[in-house]
Amino acid sequence: MKILIIEDEKALRDAIKQYLEYQGFVCETADDFLAGKEKVSQFDYDCVVVDLGLPYGNGLDIVSAIREMESKAGIIIISAKNALDDKLKGLELGSDDYLTKPFHLSELNARINAIVRRRTFEGNKVIRFNELQLHPEAQQITVNNAPVDLTEKEYRLLEYFITNQKRVLTKAAIAEHVWGDEYVQAGDYDFIYSHIKNVRKKLLEAGSADYIKTVYRSGYRLTDN
């Protein structure tokens, strides 16, 4: 899962990023309104954590912009102000949650997981694709109920395929979502091929059918057709 953190306070921004990356998320950051708005307009995220009091603008305008783009990203507002008007305005614009500073990072993580599960997985704790099962909270893949030993990136890669099953995913989209937007301009995506090859091998050895298909000149797709 890919998270964007829009927060101008460096110590808090770095602490959130470090904590969420330890939980297995891919994290991007922005330190002001302009950088945050540019990122949400260029890249897709599973959840955006946005402060209201930002240099050059208000976080509520970013919430509004995300929803105008019809993005499926979850949105959590964080603010030093425990103001009812701000909470109500944020919810009215389409945010999913509101946290008042200071807060525990474990609480932020729990709320992100709840929002992503509700928005991406329709509230389900286990996502099934034939004999494959995705367990987002445990960050585990099983084949016929037996766990498959995947690296962190291999898990993120297969998670992205399962949550976008039957859709063609370009190499650029895969690189951005699993590795971060700094890989989008890489040009050479051989590393993606290597990771997909390893995932397919491990799944086949675990007794799964071969569901990841190459789509000529387009990318890859997870399908049973």
Number of strands: 13
Query: Which strands sit side by side, in order, in the main sheet?
Result: 2-1-3-6-7
- CATH superfamily heading of the largest domain: Response regulator
The largest pleated sheet is described as: 5 strands, parallel
Quickly count the domains.
2
CATH class of the largest domain reads: Alpha Beta
User: What is the annotated CATH architecture of the largest domain?
Assistant: 3-Layer(aba) Sandwich
Classify the beta-strand content into a percent band. Answer: 15-25%
Label the overall shape. Answer: elongated
What's the CATH topology name of the largest domain?
A: Rossmann fold
Order of helices and strands: EHEHEEEHEHEHEEEEHHHEE
Would you kindly provide a brief summary of this structure?
The chain has eight helices and 13 strands.
Q: What are the defining features of this structure?
A:
single chain, 225 residues, alpha/beta, Rossmann fold, Arc Repressor Mutant, subunit A, 2 domains, 8 helices
Can you tell me about this structure?
This protein has 225 residues and is of the alpha/beta class. It folds into 2 domains: 119 residues, Response regulator (Rossmann fold), CATH 3.40.50; 96 residues, Arc Repressor Mutant, subunit A. The protein contains 8 helices and 13 strands. The strands form 4 sheets. The chain has a 5-stranded parallel sheet with strand order 2-1-3-6-7, sandwiched between helices. A 4-stranded antiparallel sheet has the order 8-9-10-11, covered by helices on one side. Strands 4-5 form a two-stranded antiparallel ribbon. The two termini are 26 Å apart. The relative contact order is 0.12. The model has no long low-confidence stretch (mean pLDDT 89).
